């Protein structure tokens, strides 16, 4: 159990470092200039809609199990399992739809009563007006609920100082492969 706690601590620390280093700010002078412009900035609301492709099966999975519960512990809800993801985000539900980014991070099975995930994910945008920007989500995702809501706790680039809400609906789920496509609607407030 101590090894699992150490591994998860390292993962969370590593993700925090990646979020800090993924900003477009180059140095202290640029940070000062950005803070000066912030005083005159107004908050904006940005709405986003995209599809998240969670591919567990096949030759190139984008979600992989990185740890399981301790030996001998069994749970019908996979409690204790942790998966790392680098999932495709697209405009439409089809896998060949126009890519808009990647969902990078991890989810942990965090409930003993139902399939509920602790989501620690960055939506990293790779095109258009949001290219190079990201939104950070940290929250509970009860995957069998029709509609799930998770908080947006920050962002980078266009979405610096973001806060808001991400709602998720399962668009499709393959019982045999466990592959899923999830529809996301985002409301992000930022400067």
From TrEMBL:
Swiss-Prot/TrEMBL keywords: Apoplast, Secreted, Signal
Signal peptide boundaries: 1-22
Keyword Transmembrane recorded: no
Taxonomic superkingdom: Eukaryota
Subunit organization: Homodimer.
Family as reported in the entry's similarity comment: Belongs to the plant dirigent protein family.
PANTHER family per record: NUCLEOPORIN-RELATED
Function: Dirigent proteins impart stereoselectivity on the phenoxy radical-coupling reaction, yielding optically active lignans from two molecules of coniferyl alcohol in the biosynthesis of lignans, flavonolignans, and alkaloids and thus plays a central role in plant secondary metabolism.
Protein name: Dirigent protein
């Amino acid at each position: 159990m101590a090894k699992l706690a150490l591994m998860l601590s390292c993962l969370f620390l590593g993700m925090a470092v990646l979020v800090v280093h993924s900003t477009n700010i180059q140095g202290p002078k640029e940070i000062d200039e950005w803070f000066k412009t912030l005083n005159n900035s107004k908050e904006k609301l940005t709405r986003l809609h995209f599809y998240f492709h969670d591919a567990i099966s096949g030759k190139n999975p984008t979600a992989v199990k990185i740890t399981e519960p301790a030996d001998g512990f069994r749970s019908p809800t996979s409690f204790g399992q942790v998966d790392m993801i680098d999932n495709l985000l697209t405009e439409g539900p089809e896998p060949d739809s126009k890519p808009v980014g990647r969902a990078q991070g991890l989810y942990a099975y965090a409930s003993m009563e139902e399939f509920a995930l602790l989501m620690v994910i960055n939506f990293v945008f790779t095109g258009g007006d949001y290219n190079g920007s990201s939104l950070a989500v940290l929250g509970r995702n009860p995957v069998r609920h029709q509609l799930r809501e998770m908080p947006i706790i920050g962002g980078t680039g266009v979405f610096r100082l973001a806060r808001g809400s991400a709602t998720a609906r399962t668009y499709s789920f393959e019982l045999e492969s466990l592959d899923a496509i999830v529809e996301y609607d985002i409301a992000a407030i930022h400067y």
